[in-house]
Amino acid sequence: MKKGKIKVSDVYAVVPFDNYIVAIKLTGKQIRETLEHGVSAIDEGAGRFPQVSGLAFTYNRIAPAGSRVKDVLIGGHPLVTDKEYTVATNDFLAAGGDGYKAFGDAVKSSKDYAVIGGAMKGDKLVYINAGKWIRDVVIEYIKSRKEISIRVEGRIREVK
Fold first, then answer.
1. What is the pLDDT of residues 9-32, one digit of tens each?
2. What are the domain boundaries of the chain?
3. How many CB atoms neighbour CB 110 within 10 A?
4. Which of 28, 33, 36, 96 could cross-link with 79 by S-S, CB 3.0 to 4.6 Å?
5. What angle do CA 35, 40, 45 make, to 5 degrees?
6. What is the pLDDT of residue 121?
7. How far apart are CA 15 and CA 97, in angstroms?
8. Which residues lie closer than 8 Å to 112 by C-beta, 6 or more apart?
9. Which CATH number is correct for 8-158, 3.40.30.10, 3.90.780.10, 1.10.1060.10, 3.40.50.2300?
């Protein structure tokens, strides 16, 4: 986006899909697998490169597949493989879209997983709001601020 007043059409251009927020429980191992998948096609320009918050990681694009992700920090602490974390994403990725198998497997492993009227249900799901699109959440956030500042936070760094 260009500097200046942000219009609703700008948000629609950046967040074009009708997705809603989903929070699911993943183990540290599943999070690492998810990040590996996210960087697996970086040289192809695939659209699945991860966007993260509350998490930082380093990766090496020329390392063998499955070992490209190096250091992973969640809330400034090293990722623990067998610990369970709550992860927010969108409904498309939570269902395994763009090949995010770890998300889809976690949701579908829920004891009472079901899809009812297009909404997911299961014990690995922490939060779903199928009544509010992500772009509407972004618009509300922008409206609640006088100014939006951007900065490079270094959450994702390539290493050699």
1. 999 999 999 888 888 888 999 999
2. 8-158
3. 16
4. 28
5. 115
6. 61
7. 16
8. 121, 122, 123
9. 3.90.780.10
